[in-house]
Amino acid sequence: MALYEAKRNGRNRYECFNVELDVAARQRRLVETDLRTALHLGQLQLHYQPVVDQQTSSVTGYEALLRWEHPTRGMVMPMDFIPIAEETGLIHELGARALNLACQEAASWDSEQTVSVNLSAVQFKNANLVHTVALALADSGLPPQRLELEVTESVLLGNSEENVRTLRALKDLGVAISLDDFGTGYSSLGYLRSFPFDRIKIDKSFVHDMCDSREAMSIIRAITDLSNSLMIKTTAEGVESEEQMRRLAAEGCSHFQGYLYGRPAPANERLKQVMTPA
């Protein structure tokens, strides 16, 4: 356990075993076992959060967010099980299940609204990813232009040529590609030059601090200026107040997402959740 802890913390170091490592290992194992059961019993569901157009104040699409309704622990959030799913390889089955469900539910909507689905770094490296997406579209009958796939900057680390090939293969299916959490940790400027992203999402940490931090506001302004010059849509995440909305609109942000417009809700409740400010 100390060995693996050292590897997780960057290698070329040492760690001493302690009881907390054993407790954490047992907890991960328990989550893994419960997650396998959840996949088998259909305990995983999607909640949808609206994305609102700045000019028309209309809902143009929804982001699909995975939730786990555990029989004893209640609602489990992705941050508590996605990393373990990635460690164990369950993320491939989990991701395919989320993608299929999102396409099926979106295909039943009486609108042309889009649905966006997140791809984890491990999923993105799967050689069968493009086939999995194509199959989800074919099985559901959802038009490709109504599906948006979100990748984070961390996904794009490593083999850039292979990453661009995967992105282009996905784009060839007719789906849109969104760059999530832009500017939070790794530079993606090279990718913006080599691949035509459809949307850049401004991380909620910048939106949260924008009214009090000159630095956060400057980063938002730089992202919107860059996106507008490249004719890429921008979605600001975590919009919770009308002041944030007005300042983002003034900077040229094209879309908003956050509690101001609606919290994530199950598919059958999504329309009730949308509250568009005047």
Outline the structure in words:
- This protein has 278 residues and is α/β, with parallel strands linked by helices.
- It has two domains: 1-41; 44-273, TIM Barrel, CATH 3.20.20.
- The chain has twelve helices and ten strands.
- It has helices at residues 2-8, 19-41, 82-88, 91-107, 121-124, 129-140, 160-172, 189-194, 204-209, 214-229, 242-250, 270-273, and strands at residues 44-53, 59-70, 74-76, 114-118, 147-152, 176-182, 199-202, 233-236, 255-256, 265-266.
- α4 packs parallel to α6 (129-140).
- The chain is globular and about 55 Å long.
User: What is the name of the CATH architecture of the largest domain?
Assistant: Alpha-Beta Barrel
Distance between the termini: 55 Å
**How is the largest sheet built, in terms of strand order?**
1-2-4-5-6-7-8-9
**Domain count:** 2
Largest beta-sheet characterization = 8 strands, mixed, barrel
Give me the Rg, rounded.
Answer: 20 Å
Helices, strands, pairings?
Elements: H1 2-8, H2 19-41, E1 44-53, E2 59-70, E3 74-76, H3 82-88, H4 91-107, E4 114-118, H5 121-124, H6 129-140, E5 147-152, H7 160-172, E6 176-182, H8 189-194, E7 199-202, H9 204-209, H10 214-229, E8 233-236, H11 242-250, E9 255-256, E10 265-266, H12 270-273
Parallel strand pairs: 2-4, 4-5, 5-6, 6-7, 7-8, 8-9
Antiparallel strand pairs: 1-2, 1-9, 1-10, 2-3
Précis, in short:
The protein folds into two domains: 1-41; 44-273, Alpha-Beta Barrel (TIM Barrel). It is built from twelve helices and ten strands. 45% of the residues lie in helices and 20% in strands.
